[in-house]
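A.,

Following up on our hallway conversation. Structure tokens first:
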């Protein structure tokens, strides 16, 4: 993820792939199993919702889907934090993913503000 993609569909897909790789490294146990599921759901939903936004039927639908992207980035950051709390050895790798999720949050926040200002 060092080279930043300007194509958000590709960048969010790569992020989802990195989330899956990270999730596979998390030790499976009664605590982590549900955390892994939550992380995978939110981390892969960012790109899926962005793809849906690009196919939106209206500006309102586009804005709504981008808002969902923003929510999913915040949720992903949350689950990364909780996973690190339960698995401190994963902190460095989780931090890289958290930073990318934060960048997505800033990008989607800007898009949402722009959409609102046009209405």
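Then the amino acids I'd put at each of the 119 positions:
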């Amino acid at each position: 993820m060092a080279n930043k993609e300007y194509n958000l569909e590709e960048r969010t897909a790569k992020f989802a792939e990195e989330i899956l790789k990270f999730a596979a490294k998390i030790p499976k146990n009664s605590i982590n199993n549900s955390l892994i599921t939550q992380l995978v759901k939110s981390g892969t939903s960012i790109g899926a919702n962005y793809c849906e936004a690009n196919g939106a039927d209206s500006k309102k639908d586009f804005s709504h889907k981008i808002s969902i992207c923003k929510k999913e980035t915040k949720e992903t950051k949350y689950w990364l934090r909780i996973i690190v709390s339960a698995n401190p050895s994963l902190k460095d790798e989780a931090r890289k993913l958290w930073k990318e999720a934060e960048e997505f949050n800033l990008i989607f926040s800007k898009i949402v503000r722009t959409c609102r200002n046009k209405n």
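Residues 35 and 83 are 7 Å apart (CA to CA). Curious whether your intuition agrees with the design.

B.
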